[in-house]
Each structure stands twice: as C-alpha cells, then as structure tokens.
C-alpha cells in the first residue's frame, strides 16, 4: 500500500486520481465529513454533496419525493432557507431522509475526487473503520488522503485527521506502509498531539470560528475519535453506507483501539 496526502482540495488532479485505480479518502474534519458520517450514523437515507446552494436548490426541485433536508454554509455563515450543517443540530432531523449538503470546502472536495476508482468519506469519528476497509479491500492500491483545507489554505484539523487515519492503518496492519512526505508529516503531527484532539481542533483557524459562533458541541463531536463504525462511500455522486457491513468481531476490534 502506498499512501499520499493532499493538503488541500486545490491539489486534486482528476487525471492523476484516475490513473492506476487510485482510492481516495476525503476528510473535512470541521465540518463536512463529520456531518456526513454523523448523519448516516443517525439514519439518514443518503447524503448528497453539492458544489453550491444553487445546485442544492436545483437538485431539491428535481427529487421525486419531499423527504429531504437542505443544509449548508458559505464561509462558515448560514445560507438562507438552509439548515446549518451542524451534526449536532441535524442529528434529530435526518432519520430516513436525504440530506442535500453544500459547504465551502468538504463537499467540493468530494465532488472533485469523483475520478478516483473509489471514494470514501472519513473523519475522526470513523477513521479506524475506514482504515480497516482500506486494508481489507485495497491493500495493493495507492491511497490518496485528501484534506479539504479551507479556501485554498491548509487546515490543521484535516492534516491531524489524515495522520489519525494513517496511524490507524499502521496499528491495524502491524506493518510498514509506503508514505509520501506529506503523509509522514500528517502522521507525525498526529503522534505529537495524539491525546490533544480537542485542544488542537479548537486552536485551528476554523476552530476559532466555531468558538466565535458558539459551535462548541460540534467542536467536541468532531474531536471524538473512533465512536462509530460507519463506513461511507461515494456512489453515483451520493454518500451512502457501504453495503458490506463489518462483522461484529471487526467492529469490536475497531472500537477497542
């Protein structure tokens, strides 16, 4: 297994992702992929990431049912007529519904990663479940971990999340992995702050915005590692639970780490 890390979504090259069956894992710890994983864990039928609010409105009008929720933000600010994409706020609303999600960074990263052979959605909440899937099904593949970043800038929390995912791969496999320099950087950032997730996320630029807007519960949730065994994958532009669920023994193994 080879592991590369892209530090921002702007580094995504569709042609290179398409080459040789690369597998992508997209992270937007604050907050899109945390929201997606939380929503699927709370029983959402699906999460549909879109590029912007206009695409979200168009999609909602084309759906053959009305059992959906529009959620989104632009530069961390609410979008009129949309729910704010807070996982803790959306949690009681999503059961059985389609969540149409528009965010500044994470949903755009997911759309840009579509050329990969397989695209997984991950966060601190489910990184170890994602890692187990990569080891079970993509051991001979090149894995590209995509940090969404923030408007072209590197996001501390996403690099930390990438390091956490790499740590999970190493822990579960008990063998060395071929890592790019960016992957090693993420891994060592995580190692040096392994037990400081909440502090690190709060200190990041996006974390500072969350504190300013009073989103303390979302910060706490996003910093919580390995609390769900959700495996999420993109299929035809939609984030869904992977059909091949982990066995109970696998789930226990992940939770025990």
Automatic annotation (TrEMBL):
PANTHER family: 2-PHOSPHOSULFOLACTATE PHOSPHATASE-RELATED
Catalytic activity: (2R)-O-phospho-3-sulfolactate + H2O = (2R)-3-sulfolactate + phosphate
EC number: 3.1.3.71
InterPro entries: ComB-like, ComB-like_sf
The keyword Hydrolase appears for this protein: yes
Gene Ontology molecular functions: 2-phosphosulfolactate phosphatase activity; magnesium ion binding; sulfopyruvate decarboxylase activity
Superkingdom as given in the UniProt entry: Bacteria
Protein's name in the database: Probable 2-phosphosulfolactate phosphatase
């Amino acid at each position: 297994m080879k592991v590369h890390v892209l530090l921002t979504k702007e580094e995504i090259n569709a042609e290179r992702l398409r080459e040789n069956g690369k597998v992508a894992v997209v992270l937007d710890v604050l907050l899109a992929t945390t929201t997606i994983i939380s929503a699927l864990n709370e029983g959402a039928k699906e999460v549909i990431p879109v590029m912007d609010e206009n695409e979200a409105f168009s999609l909602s009008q084309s759906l053959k049912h009305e059992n959906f929720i529009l959620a989104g933000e632009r530069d961390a600010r609410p979008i009129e007529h949309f729910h704010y994409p807070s996982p803790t706020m959306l949690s009681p609303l999503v059961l059985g519904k389609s969540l149409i999600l528009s965010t500044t960074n994470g949903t755009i990263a997911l759309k840009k990663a579509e050329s990969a052979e397989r695209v997984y959605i991950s966060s601190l909440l489910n990184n170890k479940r994602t890692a187990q899937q990569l080891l079970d099904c993509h051991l001979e593949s090149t894995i590209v971990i995509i940090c969404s970043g923030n408007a072209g800038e590197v996001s501390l929390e996403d690099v930390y999340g990438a390091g956490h995912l790499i740590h999970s791969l190493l822990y579960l496999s008990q063998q060395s992995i071929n890592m790019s320099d960016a992957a090693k950087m993420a891994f060592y950032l995580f190692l040096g702050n392994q037990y400081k997730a909440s502090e690190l996320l709060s200190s990041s630029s996006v974390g500072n915005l969350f504190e300013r807007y009073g989103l303390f519960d979302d910060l706490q949730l996003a910093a919580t590692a390995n609390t769900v065994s959700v495996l999420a994958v993109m299929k035809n532009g939609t984030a869904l639970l992977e059909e091949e669920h982990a066995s109970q023994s696998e789930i226990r193994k992940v939770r025990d780490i």
